[in-house]
Each structure stands twice: as structure tokens, then as C-alpha cells.
Design goal:
303 residues; 15 strands
């Protein structure tokens, strides 16, 4: 599977503040890539650099197999749709009129305006002035504008911000549908772990401008599997014995963990410790949530 976005040591610094630090992104084609991090982590700046809206201090960017530079920028933008921060429209024009202006700039026709209006379910409100649109409708109109030109790649910056639960669900379903039915790669940022968990299949976690995790979402879930909290008569010796036996174990915050929930491993660990003269004082299962993993990685809580 080839990558539709690749960055190497991508960096952005404003005076003495480094906002993005040596970022190595790898976004596979055809996926929904969740770009997750707390507010102020560097998500928007990264997306703006990918789109050529902000000039990097250092590093390289490749989009759709081409270097994202001044020479290729216009060609890449024709194959890319984006919704960065709040969408802006002419309030005195209707939704359709706003899209028609953008379609003219992208050199697409009336038929495509009809198509994107149907996709985002704004056909019935297309002749309503944009100033009269609700926040959710404006988000969908921005989405429609991003879809003009049949992009291969969509970059969406916090697209569910400010939406009510129904609007969030609708936006989530729309993103999944675009990927599944049209094969569009979606790069979507959020500070909400629950949102990324419900729509993405790949995830990158950024904190203080540094990429601290990148893999399939299933790999992140692997970290949240059950583990056993083990307390013995000598935890330090127990850790050494379990490691020598190649059993998955670790010591964190002064506590001994057996990083498995398999009964065979637990039984083997108990037998090993007993045969080495160690007693098990307590054994308890501990299930870590994705929120716990995020907190461990970033040191910050998320909704």
C-alpha cells in the first residue's frame, strides 16, 4: 500500500518557538487517517504546511507521489480538497451560488455542484442564503466545496467542532462513506479520541509538535488490552525471573505488571515464581482504556 502523504523531518518554528518538530507522517492511500492531539499540539500548522498555506522551516513533504513545492502546488491542489478551521462563504449568496463560484475556480461544471449537494444532503437548502445556515449546514457546505473537483485526498481540520451530537454523527458517517464508496483518502484532525476511534483506521498522535505514535488504530487498541497487576514477596526478583523466561512483563510506577491476559501465561508465571521461592500476595486484572493510553502518551486527558 503506497502512501498518499509522506513527510520527512517536517518542522515549523516561529522565532524561538518550535510548533512542529521533525514530523515523519505516513498516510496510506484509501484510509481514514486520524490526526489526534490536544489543542495547540501542532495539528493545524501541519495541515497548512501540507496544503502550502504555511512555509515549513525544514523538512520535506510529498503528496500524491509528488514533492509539495511551488512547482507542483497548483496541480496538487486540484486533486486535494480541504476544510481548515471554519469555512467562509458569502453570506448574501445562496449555498448553491457559493459552490458555483468555487466550481468556476476549479473549472468544474453544474453537474458536479448538484452531485456534491446531494452527497452532503444540502439539496433542499441549496437556494437558502448562506447567512441563514446553521453551523452544521455551514460545515456541510464547506465539505461540499472541498469535494468539488473529485479530489483524491481530503484534509479536514476538526470538522465536528461546534456541532451537536446529531451533526457529529452525520459528519462521521459522511467521512466514512466518502472513503468506502469513493476511495477518497481522508486526513482528519481532532482532539477527541472518541471521534477518531469511531471513524479512522489509521492514527497519528502529536503532542507539543512531536509525533509520538503512528500506526493502524488496531495497534493502538492492542495497547489497551488487559494486563495483570502482580504483587509478590519480592517484585524486583520476580521481574528478573519473568523476563528471563521471556514472559511479557514490566515495572511501572513501582508496580509489577504481567502484560498479558492469557491464562497459560499467568499459570506459567505463577509456577515459575513459586518454584523460585517467591510468593504471590495479589493478582488482579487491569484493563486500560484508550483514554488511559492517550494520557500515558501525552500526559494530558482527552474527551
Amino acid at each position: 500500500m503506497k502512501n498518499i502523504i509522506e513527510t520527512r523531518a517536517l518542522t515549523k518554528q516561529y522565532k524561538n518557538q518550535r510548533v512542529v518538530s521533525e514530523l515523519d507522517l505516513a498516510v496510506p492511500e484509501g484510509c481514514i487517517y486520524g490526526f489526534l492531539g490536544p489543542n495547540g499540539a501542532g495539528k493545524s500548522t501541519t495541515m497548512k504546511m501540507i496544503l502550502g498555506l504555511v512555509k515549513p522551516t525544514g523538512g520535506q513533504i510529498r503528496v500524491l507521489g509528488q514533492n509539495a513545492d511551488a512547482k507542483n502546488r497548483i496541480a496538487l491542489l486540484r486533486s486535494t480538497g480541504s476544510l481548515i478551521e471554519s469555512p467562509a462563504f458569502y453570506g448574501h449568496l445562496t449555498g448553491r451560488e457559493n459552490l458555483s463560484l468555487i466550481a468556476d475556480l476549479k473549472q468544474t461544471g453544474k453537474k458536479e455542484v448538484d452531485e456534491v449537494l446531494r452527497t452532503v444532503r444540502l439539496t433542499d437548502a441549496q437556494h437558502k442564503k448562506a447567512s441563514q445556515y446553521s453551523l452544521g449546514m455551514k460545515q456541510r457546505l464547506g465539505f461540499a466545496a472541498a469535494l468539488l473537483g473529485h479530489p483524491k485526498l481530503l484534509l479536514l481540520d476538526e470538522p465536528t467542532n461546534g456541532l451537536d451530537p446529531a451533526g457529529i454523527q452525520e459528519m462521521r458517517e459522511l467521512i466514512r462513506r466518502l472513503c468506502e464508496q469513493y476511495g477518497i483518502t481522508v486526513f482528519v484532525s481532532s482532539h477527541l479520541l472518541s471521534e477518531i476511534d469511531q471513524m479512522a483506521n489509521h492514527v497519528g498522535i502529536i503532542n507539543h509538535g512531536v509525533l509520538i505514535f503512528q500506526d493502524r488504530l488496531s495497534a493502538l487498541h492492542e495497547h489497551s488490552r488487559a494486563r495483570m497487576l502482580l504483587h509478590t514477596t519480592d517484585d524486583e526478583t520476580a521481574l528478573r525471573i519473568l523476563k528471563q523466561a521471556a514472559l511479557p512483563c514490566a515495572c511501572a510506577h513501582g508496580r509489577l505488571y504481567l502484560n498479558t491476559g492469557k491464562e497459560a501465561d499467568i499459570l506459567r508465571a505463577g509456577t515459575l515464581l513459586f518454584s523460585n521461592g517467591l510468593g504471590i500476595l495479589s493478582l488482579a486484572e487491569e484493563q486500560r482504556s484508550l483514554e488511559d493510553i492517550f494520557l500515558e502518551l501525552t500526559g494530558r486527558s482527552v474527551m
